[in-house]
Amino acid sequence: QVHLVESGGGLVQAGASLRLSCANSGRTFSRVAMAWFRQAPGKEREFVASKRWHVGTTYYAESVKGRFTISVDRNWSKLYLQMDNLKPEDTAVYFCADQTTGASAYNKWGQGTQVTVSS
Fold first, then answer.
1. Which residues, 6+ apart, have CB-to-CB distance to 18 below 8 Å?
2. Which terminus has fewer CB within 10 Å in the chain: N or C?
3. What is the mean pLDDT of the chain?
4. What is the pLDDT at residue 30?
5. Chain segment 43-66, per-residue pLDDT in tens
6. What percent of the chain has pLDDT over 90?
7. 12-29, pLDDT tens digit by residue?
8. Which long-range contacts (CB under 8 A, 24 or more apart) does 67-72 make?
9. What is the DSSP string of 27-46?
10. 13 C-beta neighbours (distance < 10 Å), count
11. What is the distance between the alpha carbons of residues 95 and 88, in angstroms, rounded to a whole number?
């Protein structure tokens, strides 16, 4: 069973950096992709970034392109999101997600970590 736990959130000022981590304790031998999503107060959950398993291709939302970087460790046991030049509109709960082989969408989710950016 895949168990995802996010960490690294916090309160920072605009322009600062944070690095989120997602520990994957599940014994998944293959997957489609892993990703970060976020949900701001009163808004729908939105895609932030993803990395595909097989070819390693990364995708980013336009709002974070050039500022955020998604990466994984060698065994895909940890997923990271390096967030630079943070803006107040980046304030949200950030979720780690896993799309396991055979799933048509992200089917495993963490509990989230809060990121708050003050102006």
1. 8, 9, 10, 12, 83, 86, 115
2. N
3. 93
4. 76
5. 999 999 999 988 889 999 999 999
6. 78
7. 999 999 999 999 887 666
8. 70/35, 70/36, 72/34
9. --S-EEEEEEEEE-TTS--E
10. 10
11. 18
Q: Which two tokens stand for residue 50?
A: 């993803």
Q: 14: which 2 tokens?
A: 């605009």
- d(CA 60, CA 115) in angstroms, rounded, equals 18
Residue 99 pairs with which residues in a beta bridge? 33
| Rounded Cα–Cα distance for residues 31 and 98 (Å) | 8
Distance CA 75, CA 49 (A): 19
Which tops the pLDDT comparison, 37 or 28? Answer: 37
Structure tokens at 87: 């803006």
Instruction: Count how many Cα atoms sit within 13 Å of the Cα of residue 24 in the half-sphere of its side chain.
Output: 27
